[in-house]
Structure formats: structure tokens, C-alpha cells
Amino acid sequence: MSIKLENVSKVFWAPHKELKILENINLEVKDKDMLIIFGRSGAGKSTLLNIMGGMDSPTSGKAIVDGVDLSGLKADELAKLRKEKIGYIFQSFNLLGNLKAIDNITLPVILDEDKDKKINEVMKLAQEIGIKDRLGHLPGELSLGEQQRVAIARAMINSPRIILADEPTAHLDNENSSKIIEIFKKLNREQGITIVLVTDHEWVASNFEHRFHLGE
Amino acid sequence: MSLVSFSIKNIITRRRRSLASLAGISISIALFISVILILKSAQGAFRKPLAEAGADMIVQLQGEPCVWSIVKLPTDLNPIPLKLVDKIKSLDEVVAVDGSLITWAFPIPSQSQIQKMQDTVKIEKMQVQSSARKGMPAQKEGADLAAEPCDTGVPGSFCDTGENAATAGQSNFSPIVVVGVNPEPGELGPIKKSDLKNIQGRYFTKEDNYAVILDKDFARTRNLKLEDNISIGKRLDNKVIGIIDPGYDAKIAGAQVFVPLKVAIEMTGRGEIVDIIFIKLKGGVDTTVVKQKIKKALSNEDVTITTSKDYLSSVAGFSFLAQGLMLAIFFIVILISFLFIAKTAFGSVLERSGEVGILKAVGWRNKDIIKLIVMENSILGLLGGLIGCLLGYLTSFIYRINLPSALPYYLNPYPPCSQHLVKNTLQVQAVLPVSIFLLTILLAVLIQSLSGMLAAVRILKLVPADAARRL
Questions:
Q1: Nearest CA in chain A to B368
Q2: Are B431 and B40 in contact, with CB atoms under 8 Å apart?
Q3: ipTM
């Protein structure tokens, strides 16, 4: 599943001034590709990722996912797209602190009729990434690496064709970062999932072949 | 996990926030219920005497205090000819009428007591002999209502606890309150059919002449039992055939001794009279019209008519102004209570914008998020409403007080010096009608869920990325 950005600009309005975060960005991520968006802090990487995932809209330009222009979709259609085709991983994991790991993982499918099947599938992934024994714990009881893996499992529960990960290694040590990077590579390699990662760490970016340097 | 179970899980796992919400709702509802219960209880308590007498209207005639005799009408109550009871009964708006005769029966005084009373009360002519009072009082010209001029007696002046009382063999030279009642009890009056279950012994029959039924407390105070004889007025051998337990609350025409009406009439010696008339009206009739008709029937504009409708204001001293103020306070309390619930719910949901952002990010549709928030708030509203109702109900017991002297003296005319425990208080009872209970719960659920929904709609206007950043 491909992602294409055409002349995407994003402007935020702060009091008495206009902040141009993105300006005429053109970018294409091909189906089953794995892309690193690399840039300094404040360059607009997260904003770009949000626009790709329909979490935010560009001030001008187009975001096209799987051939569909996101600007033409209504809120519920965007929600359906995010649910069925995109797995989103936040920089701070954004797990709900009151829910156990298992409940955080199943959050996207709670209202689905076929949730049992999806939960069984994601349990295999949980086993693979080493958090199966930690599912009964609250996020606060997990290490940062474990929390990130719970967030990955949550993003994967609907078997998305695209994963958008916003600085997934930002809060992790090198050992955990390497493990997380390896998980993404494996998902891309074995399941053909299109993956877009955002990072400001050069060594993380160096692990990937395709890089888009924002703010150059 | 269904939406309901997820909602319950959210409520349980967010213990602090849920408890804060529940506390807000419960306190508001408790306040609301307390005010309702106080108002309803007060209304119920004040209306109780008329309701217990089975009457919508009480008719009495007040005038100059009557002259003293062994058995006399209390204080300034004046006689109403018995035939007027039938006249009132013939009115279209009236369902049933019953007349009773409230009297005070004194012990026969000694000569020294008579002398003292003559000195102190300035009675022109002490008439110990009831024969002097036999026959109907003189008719007033142009009036159907008979009344003897009563300008020589002073009510409440016969309480003598001194030497003369001791001479008379009484601890207190005070009268016994004797009420003449219908020997065939109906649904009206001081003793109704339904009260007969509270009688030890039996009620009157038509054949009973000098039979009496005693108030339970009076019987205990005087150490009287069934089959004993009691002296009333000049007659010494009135046989006790029943002892009635009148309950806790004050009663209209409550008595220490009940006798058949004809006996009370004979003892009073003033002809075929009553001094209190109980009236049951047809439903929905205009009491003002009926009052006018009764005044016309009695040919007396000064007749005292107490209705259940104006009881609060005219009898219980609860003015319309006070009622208005109570209602104003009631509505302010409702407003504050429900605004507080709305504000709590609104604020509580607004705090969850980060969580809503996550739900949107992982693919929840807006309507699913609204369903979740409405469900959670409905559950909180239901629980808070139930707890609030319970708290309000319990709190209202603090107000479960006795309202002293709620009955005016002419409805329950005990002499001021009576040693007998006068049941002249009304108990405010906390009764929460099921309809109010259900309505309150419904309102709590509606306001809580609507406020939550409005807050959710506001959050949902945020783009998911902005909302998620607030977690």
C-alpha cells in the first residue's frame, strides 16, 4: 500500500505569527517499502506522519493513501482508514494508563464482531516480541521497551498494511532500540507491511536504506 | 468486551475520577431529594389530621366563651343545631357528613370551689344543675343557627390545683374532654370504621347509653380497665366498654372519653346540637363555592370552615408567602443541583481529550466514542442517582421532627391545665414517592449523559493528532 504526498504544506497559527512547519513536501512511499523520515527536532516530522495517517490535514497539498485523497474523506471514513489500513505508533507510546496491556492492545477492536480472531492473531505477535507474559500489567508497571512493544501490538491488531511510527526509539536505550528496529524490519520483510518511521537519531536512520531527510 | 463492559471497566479503573463524579452527583441528588422530602413531608404532616378524620372540610362555630356548667362546650366553641348536618348533607358537592360534640366535663365542685370560681371568674349565676340548661337555646332572629348568649364564662379559668381541688377529691380541678360520636362509625369523624381495629373491647351499639370508650393514655393515667365505671358530669356509672389507641399524632376532636352522641347531647343539656361537623366532598369541587353554600345554609358568615386545601395557610400558620419562599428555594436547589451535575460531567469528559484522541487514532468512529461516553455517564448518573436518593432519604430523617401545637385549639380543644398527655403534635414523615424517585434517577442519568455527550462533541472537533497530544 503506497503513500503519496503532493506539495504538502502545513502552517500553524501562533498568536501574532504564522509558523510554517512544512512547505511543499513531495514524497512517495511505495507499497511494501520501508522509509525513514529523518530530521532535526522541530522539522515537522511528526506533523508529516500525522498527515500521512489522516490524523491531521495539510494546509495545502494532498495526502494520498492507497490512491485515495484523504482530504476528500469524512471523519468516519478517515477513522475507518486508520482502523483497517494504518497502524499508528506514538512517540510516547500513548497507552491508556488505566487499562492493562492486553486491554490497550485490543482497544481498536473492542467493538468488532470478529475481535476474538484478531486477538488470537495478535497474541502470536505478542509472543514473538516477548510481551505475552506482561499482558496482565498496567503500562506503569512495564519498562519503556515493553510499553513500546505493547504499542506495536496495538498498531498491529487490525493487520494494517501501513505502519506509521513516530520516533519509536526516542525513549529507549540502544539495546531496546535495536530490538524495536528489528521488529519493524521483520514485519516489513515477512508480512510486506509498508513502514514509515520518524527519527532524529542518525544511527537509527543509518539502519535503513530509504531515507527522507526533512529540513535539508 | 462489549461497550457496556468496557464502560464499566473504565469507571472501575478510573477510580478517583469516578468517585469524584459519583460524589458530585450523589451530593446534588441528595440535596434535591432532601428538599423534596422536607416539602412533601411537611405538606403530608399538615394535611394528615384532616385526612385521618376522612374529611375535606371541618365546620365549627366560634363565638363568645360559653357559660360554665358541669358539662360545657370547650372554650369559645358554639353549638350548631344537629339538623344542619342534614342540611349540609343535601348539598350537591357533599359526599358524606358527620357531626360530633366536643365537651368538657368537670367534676362536681364543692361549695367552696363554687364560691372561689364565682369570686375569680365573675360568673353571674353558677348553674351546677344541668337541668337549667335543658332545651334548645333561644333562636336568634333571622338566623337558623341557635346559640345562647355566652358572655359570662372565661375559658381555661377552671384549672384549680389548690385547696379547693383537694377538697373536691381531684388532683386537678380540670375537665375531662368528652366527645360524643356517631354510634355507627363511617368513614368520617374522630373514630372511623378503620380505627375500630385499634379498640380493645368493643365500639358502641345503638342500644348503648352510658357506655364510654377511653383513650388508651387516659385509661392508663386513671388506672381504668374494661368494665370499670367512670364518673362523667353528674353520672357516676358510665361503663368502660372499649379502650382506643389513637396513635401518636394529634387528631381533630381527639378525646379522653368517647360517648355516643346522644349521651353527649344529654349531658350538655343544650338540645340537639353538635360543635364540629366533618364533611367529605366530591372530587374536584371548588371548596370556595362549598364554603359559601355552607355559610348560607348555616345563615352565619362567621362560621369557621377549615379545608384541606387551605390547611397549611389557615391552620398550620404556614403562610402563602412561606410556601412561595419554600418553592423558590426548591427551584433554586434544583437548578444548583443539576447545574453541578452538568458541570462535573462536562469537566470530567473534557479531561479525557487525550484518551479520545487515542481512540480516534486507533480507528474509533465519533459515534462510537460518543456512545462510550454516554454509556459511562449514564452508569455514573444511575449509580449517583441511587446513592443520592438513599443519602437524601437518610438525611431527611434528621428533619423527622415533631411540629408542636400544629392543631389549633378549636380542633383539639384540651384544657390548658389538662394533666392528660395532649397529642397535639404532628410528625413530619419522610416518604419518597416512587414517581419522584424514578424521575430523579431519570433526571440524573439524562443530565449526566447529556453533559458528557456535549463535552465529547466538543472534544471530537479536535483533530486526532491534537487530541492525542493531550494525553
A1: A111
A2: yes
A3: 0.90
